[in-house]
Amino acid sequence: MKIFKFIVSKIFLRKAILGIGIMLLLLMANYITFTAARSILSTFQGYQETKYVNQEGVYIANLDPDSHIDMSMIGESGTQAVYDYLNSSFKYAFYTDGFIVSVPNGDDMKISLGYMNEQYYRLNEFELSQGTDLDFDYQLDGEIPVLVGKGLSKTYPVGATIEMEESVLGRPLTLRVQGVLKQNAYHSNFYALNSKAYYNFSILFPVNEEFINHTSMDIKFNGLMDIVLLDTSKEEIVDLSEVIKDNLGLSFNFFSQKENYDYFNEYYLHSLKIIFITTFILLIVITCLSVWNGLVSVRLMLKDFTINLLVGLSYSKLKRIFYGYFGMLSFVNVVLIATFTAFNRYGCWLRKDATFATYGLFGLIGMDWLALLLVVVSDIVIGIIVVESMLWKIKKVPISLGVLQ
Amino acid sequence: MKKSLFRPTDMFELSIVYIFCFSLNLLLDYAKTLDLDAYILKAFLKNFIDYQPLIVSLFTFIVIVFHYQMLERKKAEIFCRILVGGTVFGITIRYVLDCLTVLIFVYFLSALVNLHFSFNLADNFYLVLIFVTYILISARRVRKYENI
Amino acid sequence: MTKIIDLSVKEKIYKSKKAQISILNGFRLEVAAGEKIAIVGESGAGKSSLLNIIGLLDRNYSGEYTLFGSPTDQLHTSQLAQWRNQRIGFILQESALINSLTVEDNIKLPFLYASPDQKGVGEIEDFDAVVSAIEIRHILKKKPLECSGGEKARAVFARGIIMKPQLILADEPTASLDVENRERIVTLLFNMNKEFNTTIITVTHDLEIANRHDRVIHLERSK
Asked: Taking CB atoms and an 8 Å limit, are A307 and C57 in contact across chains?
């Protein structure tokens, strides 16, 4: 440790510009790796989530990109007619969210409301930390059982009631907390798998037929966009498409399990490949620059290193010192990246952004820690390349020449 | 070249670090123009495009590293040149001119790429200002090696 | 007398892009403990190369070498480092100092790499004794660039002897010194030999100094 402190303070830090150079290059490498790793991990998480829904015999709705939305054609009766047809002819999973309301809570967050029917709830296998599964057999006039996120559970524990003016029904409701979702439970956007909404400050409503019949057009229309038809066939869906076209003037595509997977594989795999290749190329370029910086450092500090070698420092000890120094720079960088990420995550709390507020060790969630682990792995690889090339350069110069540089 | 502190390898090294910085800036400018369907790619690139000036500016630090190590290595040469009749002023001017020559050459190349992609020529110009500042600051160090 | 060096060099080759030079062909050297040896010869004869081989700084030659009773080809690099720290003292030209450290830090540098059992043992006493003997107390806090040639040469000398090595290898230790400083360094060197029975091998161009050693080895350029 004494030798390490000596070499770092008396040699490396004397030429601090070179150290800062390596540090910044490493910071860039870490930022790129971290960003790419999080994109890939987040997409993977979203992909895993779709597996719950995208099953055999399932068709998922998707508004045809070429379909023109004529709002004058979309009305209460038309939307209800579509749902009447759905209720009579199909088993379907319904989910929609993003309705923001004010509900008093300890963190003073705006609350996001999510609505799902029993089919969707069963498909998604929501994990609870407290309480029991949602009950869909309730009356709108009585207490409605709901699930809440971890952030709300402090103010509204299991069994507590929430009085609120609910926007989609347009009347006061009494909600009873039936269960608390696991910390950082999330929902990924089906068509942007890497983007997700966290449920920590959400209330999840059970939607039954009565609810659908009494609710406003907005929620019905939004729910239709991602509706999931279960145990059905291509032929049955053709009729539904016509019903939607007749009542709302919209063209919908319904994609089967295979079509969805083909889409994911083509669209996401391709994107992930581009991210991976771009990251890899950038890392190679940064590694080359780091090696150049390392060799420049050796060129300028050769005499200092070789005099130490002359009076008793061994190459193996020097190697350990180099790795220690690089590890120290890497550690500082990882801490910087972690702090930057934690600060970003904390920003969601400051902005009272319920959709992105998360819990985690030092403010970082599991995905962040995993991405940081990959950053450490990339640092180790870069470190080995840089340190070994520096040592190669030092060993190339005989001690007797180096001391007289 | 005989009176210059630069050797062909130094010129090459300086060109490479300039080219790297200009390329990075161009690459991010290019990324901005991409009309991507894929949300995941857009989201990924946003992490870099949003911080483009910061990222590019941090990378320009390698140019500082170049100037620093170049002059550190040339200590003895500067001293010897002064010993045999050179002046600090003359050496400094030549050093600045050599650096500017490389910078103008690389900027010219990057401007051609800018024109090819119909980017604004000014997009790369802020880098020229940064690099000129680095050159001027580093040139002041020549004086330091008058006596070694 | 105990033999501490038994060196037999078949050949030492320096290669460049255009030519290949072979030196020290068939060179043999045996040195007993406490001996004072001077190596002289014209430039390019291989004096410094020989010193590097003896000091284990260069192992890229064909031949056999036993130092302190151990065949050197079997020594691990960490053991070589330990020997450079404790058993061999190098006295090189005055430029072999770290400019960013003070003279004191430069002289104390070998203490940093002393083995754990030796660390701290008599370091202050040894340092004080050496500093007094060499008369460099006044420059201890100075950086090498602030010292004169003679002062730097004495600092290099102090660093070379601070660990009381069994073998001192001096490469032109007086090359750039005036008569007074030259005499002072040589006297100190020989005192070390007398007091601690230290073996001394000196490379020099100065025949007057060479003749004050027990043996003078004259190297000639290979033809």
From this structure: no
